[in-house]
Amino acid sequence: MDLTLTDEQAGFRALARDFLDREVVPHRAAWDRAESVDLAIIPKLGEIGFFGLTIPEEYGGVGGDYLTYVLAAEELGRADSAIRGIVSVSSGLFGTSVLRHGTEEQKQRWLPDIAAGRILGCFGLTEPGHGSDAGNLRTRARRDGDDWVIDGSKVFITNGTWADVALVFARTSDDGPRGVSAFLVPTDTPGFEATEIKGKLGLRGQATAALSFDGVRVPADALLGEVGQGFKIAMQTLDKGRVTIAASCVGIVQGCLEETVAYTGQREQFGQPIASYQLVQEMIADMSVDADAARLLTWRAADLMQRGEPYGTAASKAKLFASEAAVRAANLAVQAFGGYGFIDEYPVQKYLRDARVMTLYEGTSQVQKLLVGRAETGINAFV
Ligand code: COS
């Protein structure tokens, strides 16, 4: 694998950083306090191309390669993980599922608006009683004439109250993971309700919602893929999502490193900048090594994905390592900032709060370890 970025990749990364430093970084603390980003940022992100990076040009996207996508996710994670989540759930989890499994009509209907940031999508998999054990979800879809009627509930759904369309995973037969199907549900369909979950530790700028479905009726062409294929669609999409989370965690580590180097270089104690003390340099060195190691694991997974090779285990390793590294780095950054690290005038406490969910969602660290363990041993610890 060649680690040299092409001119296009380096150019997009520079464009992304410049845009985010101007349009997001100055506002992130206020958005975090307000528990909502200013939604006027969404079409601006669309114009730059963030929502269309892995959507082909024929569906209104930019059609970039996966490494460019992970570079964008890293820059978004460095700037504001709440914004990163809005983008990657809409274009990544929702958009990728439609791109890979949709009919031509479904792609034409949804992807151009998703790629432009004109509408948002969400991904309805997790339920109040089924998080890691996604294959046993309980939301039901039953056939009624030509329609499907959905009843049930979802929780922790990013973009839930803002989305125009939800990808909803529902049980169409009692056959474990093989009995799950996927449906594209416009959120203005009668019986669909989204309720925002307030008071989150991190990612406060993005809307996270509980969804409920009370006799939500959708036509036959709302089915994505085949009946019974829903769990595989979810798992395939999450493989890519885990690479995106890993990339955004690289951005958190990188952001913590940059902030810590800058702060400790000018903060003096005992007559010297604290960056001159060995114990502070140890913190900086640990963050720097974690940033490189997490980035290399992430790029390796993206490279496998780009070449069409199996990459699920590489995605799990990248997500596991990078998310744990993000928590470590943010914790160290708060320590290096001392009392100033504890208040929201400085960005490092937000990095810590945002990093904390990264080891939980899109598959906990424990799930990733068991996936890696299963790949190494051939023994399934989930049964
Ligand atoms: N890609 C394609 N197919 C996959 C797949 C993948 N990554 N992972 C599993 N499948 C398929 C399997 O091949 C199997 O197919 P068959 O029925 O044809 O044999 C089917 O799906 C069931 O697979 P498996 O037996 O592995 O299902 P499990 O219920 O054991 O899955 C884990 C267990 C824990 C791995 C899975 O439920 C998981 O990843 N949970 C975490 C969910 C998650 O990330 N939630 C966060 C949601 S977004 S915030």
UniProtKB/TrEMBL annotation:
UniProt keyword list: FAD, Flavoprotein, Oxidoreductase
Necessary cofactors: FAD
Source taxon at top rank: Bacteria
Record-annotated Acyl-CoA oxidase/dehydrogenase middle domain positions: 122-216
Coiled coil: none
InterPro entries in alphabetical order: Acyl-CoA_DH_CS (IPR006089), Acyl-CoA_Oxase/DH_mid-dom (IPR006091), Acyl-CoA_Oxase/DH_mid-dom_sf (IPR046373), AcylCo_DH-like_C (IPR036250), AcylCo_DH/oxidase_C (IPR009075), AcylCoA_DH/ox_N (IPR013786), AcylCoA_DH/ox_N_sf (IPR037069), AcylCoA_DH/oxidase_NM_dom_sf (IPR009100)
A Pfam short name: Acyl-CoA_dh_M
Residues in Acyl-CoA dehydrogenase/oxidase C-terminal domain copies: 228-375
Keyword Oxidoreductase: yes
GO molecular function: acyl-CoA dehydrogenase activity; flavin adenine dinucleotide binding
Stretches assigned to the Acyl-CoA dehydrogenase/oxidase N-terminal domain: 6-117
Sequence similarity: Belongs to the acyl-CoA dehydrogenase family.
PANTHER family cross-referenced by the UniProt entry: ACYL-COA DEHYDROGENASE, ISOVALERYL-COA DEHYDROGENASE, MITOCHONDRIAL-RELATED
Protein name: Acyl-CoA dehydrogenase
Organism: Aeromicrobium erythreum
